[in-house]
Amino acid sequence: GNASVNTVIDYNTYDVNEDGKVDQLDITRAQRFYGQTTDHKADVNKDGAVDINDATAVQKYIAGIIKSFD
Q1: What global pTM score does this model have?
Q2: Number of alpha carbons in the 13 Å side-chain half-sphere of residue 64
Q3: Are 36 and 16 in contact (CB under 8 A)?
Q4: Which among 63, 67, 69, 52 is positioned nearest to 24, based on CA atoms?
Q5: Strand pairing of 21-22 and 6-7?
């Protein structure tokens, strides 16, 4: 099936892999860094830890449920 993709015009917190769009690959990258604090880009909610909340935030962004943490 076709996955939803949000194109990024400027810097976007949810573009974890920095490829210019927010999609499933960003969720996967956030999940890859669970439990770590070294990959700040995967810590999309900026709470100091990469966890399920970061991957969930990217999913919600893709679905249009949230727009930003600002």
Answers
A1: 0.72
A2: 4
A3: no
A4: 63
A5: antiparallel
